């Protein structure tokens, strides 16, 4: 534990910062789009269109974070369910997984607190409520299923794209597109979390824990199911690394499969991605 903390603390702090920034973005854009005093809310009566704007904002936020220098360094999980899925695939060591998840929860809570300090009472308005995620009018069961299905789909896409040479560098774009669709279409059903730490950060600030267990269980179950499917159909060797973006010169702290590639295959990847250097794959 001590060795992991000493050697890899920058990645842990980055994970907290990434999710914190994501929550700041969520709070700011939710207030801008949904607060009754907002010009956007007065102009746009269509809730679906407002959700699309929110989805677009959060999708672009996710893409920016994944492709940022910080995202390239830590792998840009900023979601305990993603970390658990890669842990099941043996791509992340035990203490690294523990600290990733621990710092993700801290980052989410800190991000909501920061945006509250920035804009104050508008964030606590009943239409915003610290961007909490709670089950919609279809109830707890439907919300649970929706969260699990969306989480499964996201992890399935991530595992497919990150391990396909021609698609690997686009993983962040695919994740962003899915977020846009999820928030636009699914948000009325469960609030669209797919992230236990994200829901925790909002619930803690709002003191609103309605259906919290859904968001604690469903996203990990969905992503672990996607990981299990990959494991049983293609094997653990088919998953190269736990980074969402590996075509960069940042260090990798994971059980990285690139260093175990045959020499010829490594050459093929480096031809496709010149910035992917041998010393950075280890």
Number of domains: 1
Query: What is the CATH homologous superfamily assignment?
Result: Glycerol uptake facilitator protein
CATH topology: Glycerol uptake facilitator protein
By DSSP, the count of extended strands is: 0
Radius of gyration equals: 19 Å
> What is the C-level CATH assignment?
Mainly Alpha
Summed up, the helix count is: 11
Percent range for β-strand residues: under 5%
Distance, first to last CA: 20 Å
Helix-strand topology string:
HHHHHHHHHHH
Average pLDDT for all residues? 91
Spatial shape: globular
How does the major sheet shape up?
Answer: none
Secondary structure: helix percent: 55-70%
Oligomer: single chain
Question: Can you tell me about this structure?
Answer:
- With 282 residues, the protein is mostly helical.
- It has a single domain, classed as Glycerol uptake facilitator protein, CATH 1.20.1080.
- It contains eleven helices and no strands.
- It has helices at 2-34, 39-43, 47-67, 69-74, 80-88, 94-119, 140-162, 171-190, 196-206, 212-234, 263-272.
- The two termini are 20 Å apart.
- Mean pLDDT is 91; it is low at 277-282.
Keywords:
single chain; 282 residues; mainly alpha; Glycerol uptake facilitator protein; 0% strand; disordered C terminus
Give the arrangement of secondary structure elements.
Blueprint: H1 2-34, H2 39-43, H3 47-67, H4 69-74, H5 80-88, H6 94-119, H7 140-162, H8 171-190, H9 196-206, H10 212-234, H11 263-272
Helix pairs in contact: 1-3, 1-6, 3-8, 5-6, 5-10, 6-9, 7-8, 7-10, 9-10
